[in-house]
Amino acid sequence: MLCLENIRLVHNPGTPTEVTALDGLDLHIPAGQFVTVVGSNGAGKSSLVNVVSGVHRPRSGRVIIDGRDVTRLPDHARAAWISRVFDNPLAGTAPELSLADNLALAMARGGRRRLRPALTRQRRELMRAQLATLGLGLENRLTDPVALFSAGQRQSVTMLMAGLTQPKLLLLDEHLAALDPRTRARVLELTVRMHDRLGCASLMITHSMRQAIDVGDRLLVMARGRVVFDAAGPDKTNLTPSDLVDIIAGLGDAPTDRQLLAG
Ligand SMILES: Nc1ncnc2c1ncn2[C@@H]1O[C@H](COP(=O)(O)OP(=O)(O)OP(=O)(O)O)[C@@H](O)[C@H]1O
Q1: How far is 35 from 48, CA to CA, in rounded Å?
Q2: 82: CA distance to ligand 1 center in Å?
Q3: Distance, CA 193 to ligand 1 centroid (Å)?
Q4: What structural domains and CATH numbers belong to the chain?
Q5: Average pLDDT of each block of 10 consecutive residues along the chain (263 residues)?
Q6: Interatomic CA distance for residues 24 and 219, integer angstroms
Q7: Which residue, judged by its Cα, is nearest atom 27 of ligand 1?
Q8: CA angle 176, 48, 254 (to 5 degrees)
Q9: Which atom of ligand 1 is nearest to the CA of 9?
Q10: Burial, 130: exposed, middle or buried (Cβ in 10 Å; 0-12, 13-18, 19+)?
Q11: Pairing of strands 226-232, 34-38
Q12: pTM for the full model?
């Protein structure tokens, strides 16, 4: 499904601040696989997501999604395949628009559906049914501006919107980081449910060692722009957070206090 071949990404090339963010990265993620990614600050995790989504174009290497070479396609041209959820719960929705309008825009994204049918009575019923699965009572607030919602409610809506385009690839960039523990657990459950329903490939960046071990099928550790540890099955589930911290520390990339506290 997702194939990265020998990706090299260099920021500010030829200047004193030149930095190699991805350094010959190879990665293959088949459809249906849920992959968690950990690593120290600056290891290249967000750079990986930015190269896959098309925000950054690599200096060399190829990005292949669903068998198609998309290396030269800009991010908007990849929207039909990819949904991305950011760490900022306020980033994924338009605050001044109503909940219904946000959902209609998400349905229109990727070009599968037009806005007008999305606002018919039937479409609103579909929206209500989808919102009811969140268990937050938002199905009764379709006309409210999203600005009135809490961070957790907005991130839950963003997750719902991410699934509406039937993406082949779900990119989750620390999407649980800003949520309180109860909301985090609920959005995580929603994430896993959505991944299973879509049958897509998912890539979740996290600073929580516990989450990285407990969630998904495969765990990657990144350091200095490469994948340096790759575990699945019992090799993954038998890991402990302290094993992971040791792996990261052994790479010379000292784990941050945040990683240690995240458990
Ligand atoms: N837009 C940019 N301009 C210059 N350097 C950048 C840019 N984005 C990232 N970098 C550098 O690239 C390297 C990898 O950064 P990246 O954000 O991918 O790391 P990360 O693993 O996501 O870190 P964190 O856990 O702190 O979010 C770092 O050295 C970072 O300073």
Answers
A1: 13
A2: 21
A3: 30
A4: 2-92+166-262 (3.40.50.300)
A5: 96 92 96 96 94 94 94 88 88 93 83 54 87 90 95 91 90 90 88 93 95 96 94 96 89 57 53
A6: 19
A7: 41
A8: 70
A9: 12
A10: middle
A11: unpaired
A12: 0.88
The dihedral formed by the CA atoms of 222, 227, 229 and 233, expressed in degrees to the nearest 10: 110
Please report the ipTM that was assigned to this predicted complex.
0.96
1-15 pLDDT per residue, tens? 899 999 999 999 999
Which residues approach ligand 1 with their CB closer than 6 A?
A: 11-12, 19, 21, 39, 41-47
Calculate how far, in angstroms, residue 85's C-alpha sits from the geometric centre of ligand 1: 18
Q: What is the C-alpha separation between 99 and 53, in angstroms, rounded? A: 25
Please name the amino acid found at residue 244: L
Distance 225 CA to ligand 1 centre (A): 9
pLDDT tens digit sequence for 48-91:
999 999 999 999 999 999 999 999 999 888 888 899 998 888 88
